[in-house]
Design brief:
The structure holds two protein chains of two kinds. By secondary structure, chain A is α/β, with parallel strands linked by helices. In chain A, about 35% of the residues lie in helices and about 15% in strands. Chain A has 16 helices and 15 strands. A six-stranded mixed β-sheet of chain A has the order 4-3-2-6-7-8, with helices on both faces. Chain A has a five-stranded parallel β-sheet with strand order 13-10-9-14-15, covered by helices on one side. In chain A, β11 and β12 form a beta hairpin. In chain A, α1 packs across α6, α7 packs antiparallel against α14 and α14 crosses α16. The radius of gyration of chain A is 25 Å and the shape is globular. Chain B is α/β, with parallel strands linked by helices. Chain B is about 45% helix and about 15% strand. Chain B contains 15 helices and twelve strands. In chain B, the strands form two sheets. Chain B has a six-stranded parallel β-sheet with strand order 2-1-3-4-5-6, with helices on both faces. The chains are: A alpha/beta, B alpha/beta. Chains A and B meet through α7, β1 and α14 of A and α1 and α3 of B.
Amino acid sequence: MFAPRGWLKGSGARRIYRAIEPSPLFDASWYRARYLAGNPFVDSLWHFLDAGWQKGHDPSPYFDTSHYLETSRDVRQSHLNPLFHYLAYGREERRSPLRSPRETFHHYFPQAAPLVFFDTPSTAQKRLTAVLDDTTEADRSLGLLDTLALALHFAQEHSRTLRIISRRKDFAEVCQALSTAQEKVSFPSIHTDIINAIDTDVGPTFGIFRNEIFLATSWTSAYALRHAAPAQKLFAVSYPSSTPPSVIPLSVEEAAKEAWKREKDCGLHQEDAADPAFDEGSLKQGSWGKIAILWDMQHPLAYCQALQVLEDCVLRNPAALGVLEFHALGKGIEPAHIAEQPIERHPSPRHATLFEEYDLVLNASGFPLEAEAVIDCHSPDRGRHERVSEALASLLSKVSVIS
Amino acid sequence: MSSHQLWNHSLAHRLSLLRQGTYRVAYLAPKPDLGTFRYRAFNPTEALTSSSTHSASYFFYSDLALLDDLSTWADALVLVRAPYDQRVDSIYRQFRNAGKKVYFDIDDLVFDSRYSTMVASNLGYELQEEELNQWSAFISNTGLALSRADEIITTNDYLAARIRDFVDLPVHVVPNTFNSYQHARSEALPVRTPGPQGLSLGYFSGSHSHLLDFDVVASALVAFLARSPHSRLTVVGHLALPAELETFAERITRLPFMDFLELQEAIREVDVNIVPLQSSDFTSGKSELKYFEAGLVSTPTLASRTPVFEAAIAEGKTGFLADSGTWLDRLREIEGLSPELRQAVGEAARLDAHNRYSPESLVEHLTAVFGQEK
């Protein structure tokens, strides 16, 4: 079926068609292969304009429809074709058609995204805000009840009221646990507010007082809180295996230790292990300036870390932009960019001819690789920054010699 | 139009402008534009590239999706004329948490809600009910962003005084300046020979916000063009000319809104640059930028006698001033001057622009603001 006659009769539709049709951000053959494989007679552009974008279909690998709508509330409310909006307005306003590494991290770990705070005047009220989310117990030996009891103790110890911001899916469970915890603690009850932070469309905002202190109860809430206040006002629950839980100064590296360990321990996915084309010997040592990030779905933390480290190094070495190519190899990789340069995505990292092309490999997959040109990304290792940075500098010098 | 090849650079490039070993200033604007952003963020960034002690770069809200913490890249933040919202709150907090200072830069009287209806009427906005609410909310939130900064930077003494009325914070005056691109384009223009008879007048409208300002001079222009048959008027930009001027349509040249570099050429083509302004607290705070940009191409300016223009222009030496009701007399006086004398005034304006409104003078002002932080 081709586009029906007359579907461009309206001037608005014609304007949208004329903007998108010649744009390199619409790739008809890519769109066809991805979304219309079983419908050879449907026109790709018509399909995208008529229904595709509303289903979240991307017009090309370089425009992420879902991301654009997620980050553009005005476009979402206007029901305008997001690619048209980008071409007509968004590009000039410098909106991004793809996720940044930071946004990719928040995409995979939405509860690590910063909470939106507003400084508000206070009448000298002293308050502790504790943030709970769905990873609060994930890496703890103790449960939600003990975490809340600890928060109550910490508030009492500092003579503060307690505000609990819950990002957990099951809010009723938090309310019940709080009620039980309040009964359990031995001191007189302190004033406690509890807020459900996930039950809104646009995302809630929270007032904070100048002297407010914060308590993270999980690695994701540690990330969400890390810019909320100066370091001396940020705390986290620590659950050492041999001693009772305690409150320590917040450090995202420390808080995320367990999450890293858990991700690493999940090991290699069976599909990865079985692939025979994963040949370390075929790594090419420097020539074309191509960098690969290996990904699998079991290791999103490592993947996000690889993206962020690579972007940070590129931002500190702008000569790399337009010279180096960034590729992500793996199944189901979401579109993204590094320092505004789109990442080329390849669905199969096991393809030996592709793998041979890369000068530097950031390994965020479960497959263990040992080679000079491979940097492992399975820990929050600060030394990795230097390694990637040095590798980039070395790569750039080789590329410039060749060119 | 907001994008421009001069500031359409990658984030990586812009971060690289913040040089290690210097005091690094991050200018943050909601988005690029040819007005406030250019004068208050782009020009300072460009000027400080020549400084050995300070460096700067400009950023937009869209960059905040990429950068986890801008404060790790800079020693101070200058937020450029933005209303308070969650992005402002967050970026202020980032710098404060890092023990770094936050400045707010404002170039118009759009921060004190006591003036919101006056500003709206000056701009010709017909605001009622909900629109007035939104306008007042914009001004109120801009004032909130200003009042939550550590220090304020503004364009002139008049605005500085209004800011001190509003909030008890340190206020610095850093005038608008031209950039090196405007300078280079102006210097490359050929010397213009004035016509033998009459005056060629130019009105260069910056934006829609100047519609009512033109009314200040409209009747004087009608009378002047009627009495001076060889005089002409060039109008550039968004402006609906009053019906009375249609009589002189054959002597009026309309040009569309143009790029600020091309504008230098258009200003060069007239004998006198006219800058009429209504009399109000809002227009009293308007910058003298039209004076020094005309000066760059040796074109003298005749401007309304606001506090800012009175401080900028040495009457009869580097330009001319008109009080309300004297525009016709001033135009006739200037027409009566010899072309050589008008050229001399234009040349004096050029020297004055180079002395007081150059990138070098901007560096001096900025290092005085940030210098004590070293």
